[in-house]
Design brief:
This protein is an alpha/beta fold. Helix content is 41%, strand content 21%. The strands form four sheets. A seven-stranded mixed sheet has the order 1-2-6-3-7-15-8, with helices on both faces. A hairpin with a 2-residue loop joins strand 1 (51-55) and strand 2.
Length: 459
């Protein structure tokens, strides 16, 4: 057999994969609540002959495995949705009546593509007698940057020789860049309630502590890296103005280009919180909700993924896809689209397209995108690379209702098939040529220069 046979297997399974992605789009389940979505993928892969392993303590995570021995090659999948993103497949804002969540980041496509890739790979491995182990990692809760971090804590990636993934976007390109490391933390202050008018001297305000902490954090901004980000929301400010607040909470994100910077800024933020508690005579507790690493992109794997994007050919959009894309595209100005596409380092000519129907090559090595992804933790455990596929019209911003609509449409579904072929082809090359695996491993070791991954939950 050859790679064409592999791609043909994915094409023959297209109807099933599109039905699965559509069902998950309709489930639209939030982080760590993806019960129906994970079950659908798990049962399908079990029926295809994959061994299924659960992940301790993470109900909606699983590993589907086929084969024996080395190399161990993983494809990462996701299936969680976003709050407030409920939307029909429509070019007008129309929320679904029975749900508030929606796939504004296309994770209904992201995971299903990986399922299609490993299912096709299994058939080829069996037919050719190829040695090695393939895995599909069903990863929950990416939207709160926790799923893969919790899975990494359980050491499920430790024996992987390489992992790959993809992400829905507006362009077909290898991501050679990094992303910001992040800590998500909640600070809870406990005070003493009192009548705010009759006996204010008897109270100690937890809200005062939150506000003083925020003042301190805003002064801290002057003394951190210009690429660092500190943002917060007050999630509990008290019950009523005439009661001195006994309880108050503020939720912080700290981001920076490297994990070590996030750790340092977080430690300074802890001191500010302690100072706020001291000033207000309250007590403070903090919780790490989630934390993730920056991304170490593996060039060896990235080049291989690009070659497979070219070999698979760009997404096969229909006339209906272009018509729907045109309607969605008309909702944004060219200037707005340019702002979005600049984050992908897109060449100018892409802006003139409705849908990106070509493979793009950019030089983003060394760049750091402003968002965060929990696949960064995997990239510090095993060689890792990822691509994007044009599941949305050019210039569509992620985490919007427009992205949700496109992710449930033929645009997203057809791009998903392209992504499945890209990932399947890449893993097939690694199974056939173990020298490629060795080269990726060698680059990985040089990139880390002796660094050993420590879970953010154990720092």
């Amino acid at each position: 057999m050859d790679k064409k046979a592999l791609f043909d297997l994915i094409d023959r399974n297209e109807k099933t994969l599109k039905e699965m992605a559509t069902a998950i789009w309709q489930f639209a389940e939030g982080p760590f609540k993806e019960t129906a979505s994970s079950k659908l993928q798990k049962e399908y892969l079990a029926g295809q002959g994959f061994r299924i392993r659960e992940v301790p303590g993470v109900e909606t995570a699983f590993i589907a495995e086929y084969g024996e021995g080395k190399p161990v090659l993983g494809i990462l999948g996701e299936y969680d949705a976003l709050p407030g993103m409920s939307q029909k497949v429509s070019a007008a804002r129309e929320s679904l009546d029975d749900q508030s969540y929606g796939h504004g980041c296309g994770h209904n496509l992201l995971g299903t593509s990986g399922v299609g890739a490993v299912a096709a790979l299994k058939e080829i491995m069996a037919a050719e007698g190829l040695p090695g182990t393939i895995r599909y990692y069903g990863c929950p809760a990416e939207e709160i940057l926790a799923g893969k971090v919790v899975m990494a804590k359980e050491k499920v990636f430790d024996d992987a020789d390489a992992c790959i993934s993809w992400h829905p976007a507006s362009m077909n390109v290898v991501w050679g860049c990094s992303f910001l490391a992040m800590n998500s933390m909640k600070f809870r202050f406990k005070g003493i309630p009192a009548h705010a008018a009759a006996a204010p001297q008897a109270g100690r305000s937890a809200l005062d502590a939150v506000e003083l902490m925020n003042v301190g954090a805003n002064y801290l901004r002057e003394h951190v890296s210009e690429k660092a980000r500190i943002h917060y929301v007050i999630t509990n400010g008290g019950m009523a103005p005439n009661i001195v607040p006994e309880d108050a909470e503020v939720w912080y994100y700290v981001r920076a280009p490297k994990r070590a910077e996030v750790r340092e800024i977080s430690e300074r933020l802890f001191k500010i919180a302690e100072g706020a508690a001291l000033m207000t005579e309250t007590t403070m507790k903090h919780e790490l909700v989630a934390g993730c690493y920056d991304v170490v992109s593996n060039d060896t794997l990235g080049k291989l993924m690009h070659a497979n994007m070219v070999e698979a050919g760009p997404p096969k959009y229909t006339e209906e896809d272009f018509e729907f894309g045109k309607k969605l595209s008309a909702l944004s100005t060219r200037e707005d689209k340019k702002k979005v596409m600049s984050t992908y380092f897109a060449p100018d000519h892409v802006l003139d397209k409705i849908l990106c129907d070509e493979i793009i090559e950019v030089n983003d090595k060394g760049a750091v995108l402003a968002g965060s992804v929990d696949s960064g933790d995997v990239s510090y455990i095993a060689p890792f690379a990822q691509v994007t596929a044009a599941t949305w019209p050019v210039g569509t911003a992620a985490h919007t209702w427009v992205a949700t609509a496109a992710s449930g449409s033929g645009i997203g579904l057809n791009a998903m098939i392209f992504a499945a072929k890209t990932m399947a082809g890449t893993v097939y090359d690694l199974l056939k040529d173990h020298a490629l695996v060795a080269a990726a491993q060698d680059e990985f070791k040089k990139s880390l220069n002796g660094f050993k991954y420590i879970s953010p939950y154990e720092e």
